[in-house]
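User: Can you predict the 3D structure for this chain?
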Amino acid sequence: MESFEVKEITAKSILSPSTLQQTDYDYSCNPYTGCRFSCVYCYASFMARMVGKKTEDWGSFVYAKMNAPDLLRTEINKLPNHGKGKVIWFSSVTDPYQGIETKYRLTRSCFEVLIQEEFEGKVSILTKSNLVVDDLEVFKKLQHVEVGLTITSTEDSISRYFEKFAPAASVRLDALRLLHRNSIPTYAFIGPILPHFSSKPEALDALFASVADTGVKEIYLEYLNLSPYIRKRLKNELQDLDVSLWDEFYNSQDIQYRNRMDVILKKLVQKYGFTLRLGSALYHKDMT
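Assistant: Here is the predicted structure, written as C-alpha coordinates:
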Protein backbone atom coordinates (compact mmCIF):
# COMPACT_ATOMS: atom_id res chain seq x y z
CA MET A 1 0.00 0.00 0.00
CA GLU A 2 1.28 3.45 -0.89
CA SER A 3 2.38 5.39 2.20
CA PHE A 4 0.67 8.68 2.96
CA GLU A 5 1.76 11.14 5.63
CA VAL A 6 -0.56 13.52 7.47
CA LYS A 7 0.91 16.02 9.88
CA GLU A 8 -0.58 18.83 11.95
CA ILE A 9 1.58 21.96 11.87
CA THR A 10 1.60 25.57 13.03
CA ALA A 11 2.06 28.10 10.25
CA LYS A 12 3.72 31.50 10.57
CA SER A 13 1.43 33.28 8.12
CA ILE A 14 -1.51 32.41 5.89
CA LEU A 15 -2.06 35.23 3.37
CA SER A 16 0.50 35.28 0.56
CA PRO A 17 0.58 38.38 -1.68
CA SER A 18 0.39 37.57 -5.38
CA THR A 19 3.70 37.85 -7.23
CA LEU A 20 2.49 36.52 -10.59
CA GLN A 21 1.97 38.80 -13.56
CA GLN A 22 -0.90 36.86 -15.14
CA THR A 23 -3.35 36.82 -12.28
CA ASP A 24 -6.44 38.58 -11.02
CA TYR A 25 -6.16 37.99 -7.28
CA ASP A 26 -4.28 39.88 -4.55
CA TYR A 27 -3.64 37.15 -1.98
CA SER A 28 -3.68 33.37 -1.85
CA CYS A 29 -4.67 31.34 1.19
CA ASN A 30 -3.51 27.73 1.49
CA PRO A 31 -4.87 25.94 4.58
CA TYR A 32 -2.78 22.88 3.72
CA THR A 33 0.73 22.17 2.49
CA GLY A 34 0.79 19.32 0.01
CA CYS A 35 -2.07 17.81 -1.96
CA ARG A 36 -3.34 14.24 -1.99
CA PHE A 37 -4.77 14.51 -5.50
CA SER A 38 -1.26 13.91 -6.86
CA CYS A 39 -1.88 15.35 -10.33
CA VAL A 40 1.12 14.38 -12.43
CA TYR A 41 1.37 17.77 -14.15
CA CYS A 42 1.03 19.87 -10.96
CA TYR A 43 3.18 22.99 -10.92
CA ALA A 44 2.83 23.13 -7.12
CA SER A 45 5.00 20.03 -6.72
CA PHE A 46 7.92 22.43 -6.18
CA MET A 47 6.42 23.02 -2.73
CA ALA A 48 7.74 19.61 -1.69
CA ARG A 49 11.21 21.14 -1.47
CA MET A 50 9.94 23.72 1.02
CA VAL A 51 9.23 21.00 3.59
CA GLY A 52 12.27 18.82 3.01
CA LYS A 53 10.65 16.53 0.45
CA LYS A 54 11.40 15.72 -3.18
CA THR A 55 9.11 16.68 -6.05
CA GLU A 56 8.59 12.96 -6.60
CA ASP A 57 6.99 12.87 -3.12
CA TRP A 58 4.20 15.23 -4.19
CA GLY A 59 0.88 13.58 -3.41
CA SER A 60 2.25 11.43 -0.58
CA PHE A 61 1.92 14.01 2.19
CA VAL A 62 -0.40 16.74 3.46
CA TYR A 63 0.32 19.05 6.37
CA ALA A 64 -2.68 20.72 8.00
CA LYS A 65 -2.09 24.29 9.16
CA MET A 66 -4.04 24.05 12.38
CA ASN A 67 -3.83 27.77 13.16
CA ALA A 68 -4.88 28.88 9.66
CA PRO A 69 -8.24 30.40 10.76
CA ASP A 70 -6.67 32.34 13.64
CA LEU A 71 -3.89 33.63 11.40
CA LEU A 72 -6.43 34.67 8.79
CA ARG A 73 -8.43 36.62 11.37
CA THR A 74 -5.33 38.53 12.41
CA GLU A 75 -4.07 39.18 8.89
CA ILE A 76 -7.32 40.34 7.30
CA ASN A 77 -7.84 42.79 10.13
CA LYS A 78 -4.62 44.46 9.04
CA LEU A 79 -6.04 45.08 5.57
CA PRO A 80 -7.49 48.58 5.02
CA ASN A 81 -11.25 48.99 4.55
CA HIS A 82 -12.00 45.40 5.59
CA GLY A 83 -10.28 44.21 2.42
CA LYS A 84 -12.66 46.03 0.10
CA GLY A 85 -11.49 45.71 -3.49
CA LYS A 86 -9.11 42.84 -2.70
CA VAL A 87 -9.37 39.21 -3.83
CA ILE A 88 -8.30 36.20 -1.77
CA TRP A 89 -7.82 32.99 -3.74
CA PHE A 90 -8.28 29.58 -2.13
CA SER A 91 -5.78 28.13 -3.00
CA SER A 92 -2.66 28.49 -5.12
CA VAL A 93 -0.52 25.49 -4.15
CA THR A 94 -2.98 23.02 -2.64
CA ASP A 95 -6.57 21.98 -3.16
CA PRO A 96 -8.75 23.47 -0.39
CA TYR A 97 -11.28 20.63 -0.72
CA GLN A 98 -9.06 17.56 -0.89
CA GLY A 99 -10.25 14.66 1.25
CA ILE A 100 -8.48 15.76 4.43
CA GLU A 101 -10.82 18.75 4.57
CA THR A 102 -13.59 16.42 5.77
CA LYS A 103 -11.55 15.85 8.93
CA TYR A 104 -10.06 19.25 9.67
CA ARG A 105 -12.51 21.68 7.98
CA LEU A 106 -9.79 24.32 7.87
CA THR A 107 -11.06 25.76 4.60
CA ARG A 108 -14.58 26.09 5.97
CA SER A 109 -13.26 27.62 9.19
CA CYS A 110 -11.36 30.22 7.18
CA PHE A 111 -14.57 31.18 5.38
CA GLU A 112 -16.39 31.44 8.70
CA VAL A 113 -13.69 33.84 9.88
CA LEU A 114 -14.18 35.97 6.77
CA ILE A 115 -17.92 36.06 7.47
CA GLN A 116 -17.45 36.94 11.14
CA GLU A 117 -14.95 39.69 10.36
CA GLU A 118 -17.18 41.08 7.58
CA PHE A 119 -14.51 40.79 4.93
CA GLU A 120 -15.60 43.10 2.11
CA GLY A 121 -13.31 41.74 -0.57
CA LYS A 122 -13.91 38.85 -2.93
CA VAL A 123 -13.30 35.19 -2.15
CA SER A 124 -12.34 33.10 -5.16
CA ILE A 125 -12.19 29.33 -4.79
CA LEU A 126 -10.65 26.80 -7.16
CA THR A 127 -10.87 23.06 -6.59
CA LYS A 128 -11.10 19.68 -8.28
CA SER A 129 -13.41 18.30 -5.62
CA ASN A 130 -17.16 17.96 -5.34
CA LEU A 131 -16.73 18.36 -1.56
CA VAL A 132 -17.02 22.07 -2.28
CA VAL A 133 -20.81 21.73 -2.50
CA ASP A 134 -20.89 20.84 1.21
CA ASP A 135 -20.26 24.53 1.91
CA LEU A 136 -23.06 25.94 -0.22
CA GLU A 137 -24.74 27.59 2.74
CA VAL A 138 -21.43 29.08 3.89
CA PHE A 139 -20.84 30.63 0.47
CA LYS A 140 -24.23 32.32 0.61
CA LYS A 141 -23.09 34.22 3.72
CA LEU A 142 -19.93 35.62 2.14
CA GLN A 143 -20.34 39.11 0.72
CA HIS A 144 -18.56 38.34 -2.57
CA VAL A 145 -17.68 34.80 -3.60
CA GLU A 146 -17.10 32.71 -6.71
CA VAL A 147 -16.34 29.01 -7.04
CA GLY A 148 -14.40 27.41 -9.87
CA LEU A 149 -13.67 23.82 -10.72
CA THR A 150 -10.75 22.61 -12.79
CA ILE A 151 -11.93 20.60 -15.78
CA THR A 152 -9.28 18.95 -17.95
CA SER A 153 -11.38 16.34 -19.75
CA THR A 154 -14.87 14.95 -20.14
CA GLU A 155 -13.50 11.41 -19.89
CA ASP A 156 -13.19 9.98 -16.40
CA SER A 157 -10.47 7.57 -17.53
CA ILE A 158 -8.27 10.47 -18.63
CA SER A 159 -8.87 12.49 -15.49
CA ARG A 160 -8.03 9.43 -13.39
CA TYR A 161 -4.81 8.87 -15.34
CA PHE A 162 -3.45 12.38 -14.92
CA GLU A 163 -5.15 13.30 -11.62
CA LYS A 164 -4.79 10.09 -9.67
CA PHE A 165 -6.79 10.74 -6.53
CA ALA A 166 -8.96 13.67 -7.62
CA PRO A 167 -12.71 13.18 -8.13
CA ALA A 168 -13.68 12.15 -11.65
CA ALA A 169 -14.30 14.80 -14.29
CA SER A 170 -18.00 13.98 -14.48
CA VAL A 171 -18.39 14.56 -10.74
CA ARG A 172 -16.76 17.99 -11.03
CA LEU A 173 -19.12 18.99 -13.82
CA ASP A 174 -22.05 17.94 -11.63
CA ALA A 175 -20.68 20.09 -8.80
CA LEU A 176 -20.44 23.11 -11.10
CA ARG A 177 -24.00 22.56 -12.25
CA LEU A 178 -25.29 22.36 -8.67
CA LEU A 179 -23.43 25.50 -7.62
CA HIS A 180 -24.84 27.39 -10.60
CA ARG A 181 -28.38 26.24 -9.82
CA ASN A 182 -27.93 27.60 -6.30
CA SER A 183 -27.00 31.02 -7.69
CA ILE A 184 -23.35 30.79 -6.62
CA PRO A 185 -21.17 32.64 -9.18
CA THR A 186 -19.10 30.00 -10.95
CA TYR A 187 -16.25 29.62 -13.41
CA ALA A 188 -14.28 26.78 -14.94
CA PHE A 189 -10.54 26.46 -15.12
CA ILE A 190 -9.82 24.51 -18.30
CA GLY A 191 -6.22 23.58 -17.81
CA PRO A 192 -3.78 22.39 -18.35
CA ILE A 193 -4.90 21.88 -21.93
CA LEU A 194 -3.68 18.35 -22.48
CA PRO A 195 -1.54 18.02 -25.63
CA HIS A 196 -3.67 15.30 -27.22
CA PHE A 197 -6.34 17.94 -27.92
CA SER A 198 -4.12 19.19 -30.75
CA SER A 199 -4.88 16.06 -32.76
CA LYS A 200 -8.37 15.61 -31.31
CA PRO A 201 -10.15 18.96 -31.65
CA GLU A 202 -13.51 17.17 -31.42
CA ALA A 203 -12.62 16.11 -27.87
CA LEU A 204 -11.78 19.70 -26.97
CA ASP A 205 -15.11 20.83 -28.44
CA ALA A 206 -16.88 18.23 -26.30
CA LEU A 207 -15.08 19.56 -23.23
CA PHE A 208 -16.23 23.13 -23.92
CA ALA A 209 -19.76 21.91 -24.58
CA SER A 210 -19.86 20.04 -21.26
CA VAL A 211 -18.67 23.10 -19.35
CA ALA A 212 -21.24 25.31 -21.11
CA ASP A 213 -23.96 22.81 -20.17
CA THR A 214 -23.32 23.48 -16.46
CA GLY A 215 -24.33 27.13 -16.90
CA VAL A 216 -20.82 28.49 -16.49
CA LYS A 217 -20.16 31.66 -18.49
CA GLU A 218 -16.57 32.51 -17.53
CA ILE A 219 -13.47 30.39 -18.00
CA TYR A 220 -9.71 30.39 -17.66
CA LEU A 221 -7.49 28.54 -20.11
CA GLU A 222 -3.97 27.34 -19.37
CA TYR A 223 -1.29 25.57 -21.36
CA LEU A 224 0.71 22.78 -19.79
CA ASN A 225 3.62 23.96 -17.65
CA LEU A 226 6.66 21.94 -18.70
CA SER A 227 9.28 23.36 -16.39
CA PRO A 228 12.15 20.88 -15.84
CA TYR A 229 10.95 19.71 -12.43
CA ILE A 230 7.53 18.95 -13.90
CA ARG A 231 9.02 17.13 -16.89
CA LYS A 232 10.98 14.95 -14.49
CA ARG A 233 7.87 14.08 -12.54
CA LEU A 234 5.89 13.38 -15.69
CA LYS A 235 8.60 10.98 -16.86
CA ASN A 236 8.53 9.13 -13.54
CA GLU A 237 4.76 8.96 -13.29
CA LEU A 238 3.89 8.25 -16.92
CA GLN A 239 6.52 5.71 -17.87
CA ASP A 240 4.02 3.65 -19.85
CA LEU A 241 2.85 6.60 -21.94
CA ASP A 242 3.00 6.02 -25.69
CA VAL A 243 6.09 7.57 -27.32
CA SER A 244 3.97 9.57 -29.77
CA LEU A 245 2.12 11.16 -26.86
CA TRP A 246 5.43 12.19 -25.33
CA ASP A 247 6.15 14.01 -28.58
CA GLU A 248 2.85 15.85 -28.19
CA PHE A 249 3.75 16.80 -24.62
CA TYR A 250 7.03 18.36 -25.67
CA ASN A 251 5.59 19.96 -28.80
CA SER A 252 3.11 21.81 -26.59
CA GLN A 253 5.93 24.20 -25.69
CA ASP A 254 6.42 25.12 -29.35
CA ILE A 255 5.20 28.53 -30.51
CA GLN A 256 3.62 27.01 -33.63
CA TYR A 257 1.62 24.62 -31.45
CA ARG A 258 0.35 27.48 -29.31
CA ASN A 259 -0.50 29.65 -32.31
CA ARG A 260 -2.50 26.79 -33.81
CA MET A 261 -4.24 26.07 -30.52
CA ASP A 262 -4.97 29.74 -29.87
CA VAL A 263 -7.02 29.83 -33.08
CA ILE A 264 -8.96 26.71 -32.06
CA LEU A 265 -9.52 27.98 -28.53
CA LYS A 266 -10.70 31.40 -29.69
CA LYS A 267 -13.29 29.81 -31.95
CA LEU A 268 -14.55 27.58 -29.11
CA VAL A 269 -14.78 30.50 -26.69
CA GLN A 270 -16.92 32.35 -29.22
CA LYS A 271 -18.96 29.28 -30.16
CA TYR A 272 -20.07 28.65 -26.59
CA GLY A 273 -20.36 32.29 -25.56
CA PHE A 274 -17.73 32.21 -22.82
CA THR A 275 -15.89 35.17 -21.36
CA LEU A 276 -12.18 34.33 -21.31
CA ARG A 277 -10.61 35.73 -18.19
CA LEU A 278 -7.24 37.45 -18.50
CA GLY A 279 -7.95 37.69 -22.23
CA SER A 280 -5.80 34.77 -23.33
CA ALA A 281 -4.64 31.32 -22.30
CA LEU A 282 -1.99 31.25 -19.59
CA TYR A 283 1.41 30.16 -20.79
CA HIS A 284 4.44 29.31 -18.63
CA LYS A 285 7.98 29.67 -19.89
CA ASP A 286 10.51 27.08 -18.78
CA MET A 287 11.52 27.58 -15.17
CA THR A 288 14.18 25.84 -13.12
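The radius of gyration is 19 Å. Residues 255-271 form the longest helix (17 residues).
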